[in-house]
Design goal:
By secondary structure, the chain is α/β, with parallel strands linked by helices. The protein is built from ten helices and eight strands. The longest helix has 25 residues. It is globular, with a radius of gyration of 17 Å. The structure holds adenosine-5'-diphosphate. Adenosine-5'-diphosphate binds next to α1, α8 and α9.
Length: 260
């Protein structure tokens, strides 16, 4: 069993909110408990969170996600604070302090900025604080946007030299075809991102009208290239995080060369 010391967990909107856009408080509470518990085992933990636009929509009474970029950014600005307020409260119940880190592509790819970011992460770990990361939607539009939090979480894992990246999804892992089909099978282990893997993700994303798995495969490519184990597990059961850490079977594992 590998001993993971630095773990990045990414949580998607579908795990954080109900279909009506309101926060899934019990889900967030369980996630906060598991991450605090893991941090108590002297492991560095980072949470990459989506959900700011959804929370902003709910707060301002929007029923549908707007197309206008400026409006989406405004909703994210409203939602981000509320989301952090919720995390702060939940993590505090388990004795943990959290910090907000909002980043853009440039903060990761420009050397002096990335050094500043790493220094901040390290100082937070030293003081037992759990960093909660999101893309800085106020200033990041297309050119400087990483675009989705799956890939953002992989870059964060690379930046801080994490050894494990866990993506919490609304599904048990990567299926070999459209998961809505009866004969679709869960893929347990991926050793390289070959055509069969990209087509499993792409095939279904067009049918279902979601890029959900495509961005996760892109994240896996970055993780694997950097020697980081990545897992996709169902976020409706945060205990899956324990399973991955202790080497029990859960979700889909993407194994970098060094783990073979
Ligand atoms: P989140 O990022 O919140 O976990 P997404 O909707 O972005 O959610 O991604 C998960 C979704 O990807 C699944 O619910 C499923 O509908 C879709 N999907 C597309 N192709 C596949 C596949 N091959 N295996 C599993 N899920 C897939």
């Amino acid at each position: 069993m590998a001993d993971y010391n630095r773990i990045v967990v990414k949580v998607g909107t579908s795990t954080l909110t109900y279909g009506n856009g309101k926060l899934n408080l019990s889900g967030i509470e369980r996630l906060s408990m598991v991450l605090s518990d893991i941090a108590n085992q002297n492991k560095d933990v980072v949470l990459v969170t989506s959900g700011a636009i959804g929370v902003g929509m709910s707060k301002l009474g929007f029923k549908e996600r707007p197309y206008d970029i400026g409006l989406k950014q405004a909703l994210a600005a409203v939602g981000q604070g509320l989301l952090m307020q919720t995390y702060e409260k939940m993590f505090a119940e388990y004795g943990r302090v959290v910090a907000q880190i909002l980043i853009t592509k440039e903060d990761i790819f420009l050397e002096d900025r990335s050094i500043n970011a790493v220094n901040t992460f390290n100082a937070l770990f030293k003081h037992n604080v759990i960093p909660i990361v999101n893309e800085n939607d106020t200033i990041a539009t297309d050119e400087i946007k990483i675009g989705d939090n799956d890939v953002l979480s992989a870059y964060v894992a690379k930046l801080i030299k994490a050894d494990l990246l866990i993506l919490l999804s609304d599904i048990d892992g990567l299926y070999d075809k459209n998961p809505a089909l009866e004969d679709a099978k869960l893929i347990r282990r991926v050793y390289s991102i070959d055509d069969s893997i990209t087509s499993a993700a792409e095939d279904t994303s067009s049918i279902l009208g979601t890029g959900g798995m495509r961005t996760k495969i892109n994240a896996a490519r970055i993780a694997m290239e950097n020697g980081i184990l990545m897992a996709i597990v169902n976020g409706s059961r945060p205990d899956n995080i324990y399973d991955i850490i202790s080497g029990r079977e859960a979700g889909t594992l993407f194994l970098p060369d060094r783990k073979l």
